[in-house]
TrEMBL record:
Residues 2-187 form the NodB homology domain. This is Chitooligosaccharide deacetylase. The keyword Ribonucleoprotein does not apply. Belongs to the polysaccharide deacetylase family. Pfam families: Polysacc_deac_1. It comes from Methylobacterium isbiliense. Keywords: Hydrolase, Metal-binding. SUPFAM superfamilies: Glycoside hydrolase/deacetylase (SSF88713). Is involved in generating a small heat-stable compound (Nod), an acylated oligomer of N-acetylglucosamine, that stimulates mitosis in various plant protoplasts.
Amino acid sequence: MTQITLSFDNGPDPDVTPQVLDVLRRHDIRTTFFVLGDKLRERRYLCERAHGEGHAIGNHTYNHLVPLGMSAAAGMATFEIVRTQELIGTLAHERRFFRPFGGGGLLDDRLLNPEALDVLVQGGFTCVLWNAIPEDWVRPQEWVDRALQQCFSQAETLIVLHDIATGAMNQLDRFLNLAKDRGARFTQDFPESCVPIERGRILRPVDRYLSRAA
Ligand SMILES: [Zn+2]
């Protein structure tokens, strides 16, 4: 049995997020949107809609410019995480989902720095990583095959897609149909292996995600 958890990063986008929500509604699939504070500021209504339709809203930093693990600037990680969480406000999941970003989706020491880790632990955040990244932003027309390959090579997949204006989400319906045809089951739950920190408690080693720069 192949189980797939969808997640959408870097939104909300005024055109693409509603398109994604329409497709998910047709397929009766619930997911998590990891949003940017800077975009949420102007487009909260999109997160309200997603939340109202049963999707979870997670924190994906405010600016998404410099991976937290590549910055040693004091206060930067705190601002990026805390300010975004304030903007998410009542739309936040009680587990306070946070997803870091790095370089090209690699799970390495660009994801976090010591200050970020401290904010996550003190703030009771749940850190949500991933185990499939079909690079929909690199090949917006050709990510589906790679995504299927990744999903069907393991029992539980947490896949990262992006509700941004690349055109990639025009393929979302096709991806979901193909995955369903091959027997995939969709869930909103995250595979345990993708969640190193749960409500501020470090459950599995985070050293490999942590730069020592700061
Ligand atoms: Zn991102």
